[in-house]
Amino acid sequence: MHPFAPGPRDRVEAIGEGGLIAAIRRWLGNACPPAPAGIGDDCAVLPPSRHQQLITVDPVIFGRHFDAAVPPAAVGAKLLKRNLSDIAAMGGRPRAAVVSLCLDRSTRVRWLREFHRGLAITARRHGVALVGGDVAEAPGALIASLTLLGESTGTRVLTRQGARPGDWIAVTGRLGGSLASGHHHRFTPRLAEGRWLARRPEIRAMMDVSDGLAKDLAALTPRGARAALDLGTVPRRRGCTLAAALGDGEDYELLCAIGSRADLPALQGAWRRRFPTLPLTVIGKFVRNPGSRTAPDSLPASGYEHLRPAP
Amino acid sequence: MHPFAPGPRDRVEAIGEGGLIAAIRRWLGNACPPAPAGIGDDCAVLPPSRHQQLITVDPVIFGRHFDAAVPPAAVGAKLLKRNLSDIAAMGGRPRAAVVSLCLDRSTRVRWLREFHRGLAITARRHGVALVGGDVAEAPGALIASLTLLGESTGTRVLTRQGARPGDWIAVTGRLGGSLASGHHHRFTPRLAEGRWLARRPEIRAMMDVSDGLAKDLAALTPRGARAALDLGTVPRRRGCTLAAALGDGEDYELLCAIGSRADLPALQGAWRRRFPTLPLTVIGKFVRNPGSRTAPDSLPASGYEHLRPAP
Question: What's the rounded Cα separation, in Å, for the pair A38 and A25?
Fold first, then answer.
């Protein structure tokens, strides 16, 4: 369904801001609690929490993250799941979200209904309360930015910092071909996996793979080291080349550093008992790199670079 | 300064996403703490809080909330202040913010630098940590959505619900002419005033005036009542008509309901001692309306309605 309607019928301008906000509350149903815990006041009010708080924001933009071929319910699901993947990458649990919607007044009400239904189903599945947001007009655009709040689930949040030279590098699932396969909107955020990994003391650092392994790995690489990958072990989605697995991005898998003295067979056995259908693959290690204090140099510079003209 | 550059020099596409994020960290300076408390990890991490948490989101959109005539530093300041006004309206204290930036690749780097400087100055002034965000390409657009987290400062947050028939209606400051006077980006969010009012037990409900008094007042009006205003008392900005004061919007003043048995002279005396230069004006009261269980009917239906064609 194309998100913009050619004629005046079914356009959001026919119901206006007040009508749209009332409709959004209806579409979200019990995924949106009553005000002030949900939509309807100047701020949403959440109870105190004795855990560390996590906050992340990611948008979906028409023409960039989705087009008219992606079902609107999948766009709504993707918007939340992109952010859930960031909470998963810290080993956290999601709590609540707000959405800033910027849209042309010709946007179809039916498109928005399906979008919000997809968002609400995903929110219920993961225990996220959709507590508020904002609706504003942006000529020619259709953009939804979701801010997700979460909290730590144990004594630590797992950050990107903490890997050391000698640590193993591991990744969940399979990489590459996300756009062509539809994985970019069908994926399952690795929340349970992230919480499990955060409780294992041998995991030293973690992040999610969103721009492609080759680019994202730099953020996990400790100073004075480089990532030495055994390229034959990089788990690829069926039919994908190595270049696709390294550079396509939108994988939403977890990438972690495992302490060099870890008992790898014991860790992988425990993983397989807990997550029997999802591989956790060791793909290389961080090695000392006396000549460099910067990013890894063993990988081709690929991965998705935003805001650049296409090469 | 026009935010889009005509030639390739000084465009954001010349530095790319990585260059822009590095520049943003530099521009924000100490308004952005080191990761994971600030930019640089999958989520930002905030310490636990024993207070109720507040969350709100509002964007600024080129062509809607600002144009090339508004200095970019004022746009950055306005983005944060719009959200601070929502925290003020609950009697809260701001904590931290994330920004989702959606922009055309022809956006001027210089415009973005001034925008972030204005944002950072305002953040420091109000004790807000700018902890993260996202940068994405949106052809033809320049939109920044800011999500602000805050917390309650006393035993209660002051919501829009709670007014009763018989309660007085009061407003801070002066209304109308916000766009023409530049108030829409020069205003001071009423944070200290909101906290003060939330600690006074005679204040029963509160909100900020953003779409215009006539429209916003409906949200404060209790069921079975209507707002009866003494229109001559509505405090107007110099040179403004009553219609402008009721309908222009973007006032960012506080509107509250005062219990019918309150000692008004004592309240106003205490207010004047604490805030000697800002008026708190009683402009009417909520009266029983046996014929109606809906919104107030004593006001003309005006105020800014988004997403509608101009009348």
Answer: 9
Q: Which two tokens stand for residue B144?
A: 């920044």
pLDDT in tens, B185-237: 999 999 999 999 999 999 999 999 999 999 999 999 999 999 999 999 999 99
How far apart, in whole angstroms, are the C-alpha atoms of residue B233 and residue B280? 11
What global pTM score does this model have? 0.93
Q: Is there a contact between B43 and A50 if contact means CB atoms under 8 Å apart?
A: no
Cβ atoms B135, A94 nearer than 8 A: no
Judge: B55–A131 Cβ closer than 8 Å, yes or no: yes
- B221, B77, B246: which is closest to B161 by C-alpha? B221
Q: Domains of chain B (ranges plus CATH)?
A: 12-152 (3.30.1330.10), 168-288 (3.90.650.10)
Nearest Cα of chain A lies from the Cα of B219 at a distance, in angstroms, of: 9
A-B contacts at Cβ under 8 angstroms: 258
Euclidean distance between CA atoms A32 and A42, whole angstroms: 15
Touching check for B89 and chain A: CB below 8 Å? yes
Decide if A20 and B133 are in contact by the 8 Å CB cutoff: no
State whether A90 and B132 contact (CB < 8 Å). no
The C-alpha atoms of residue A279 and residue B80 are separated, in whole angstroms, by 44
Contact by Cβ (8 Å): B147, A59: no
C-alpha torsion sign, points B165, B166, B167, B172: positive
pLDDT at residue A295 greater than cutoff 60 = no
Helix, strand, coil percentages for chain B (3-state, nearest 5): 30, 25, 40
Q: Which two tokens stand for residue A253?
A: 């898998």
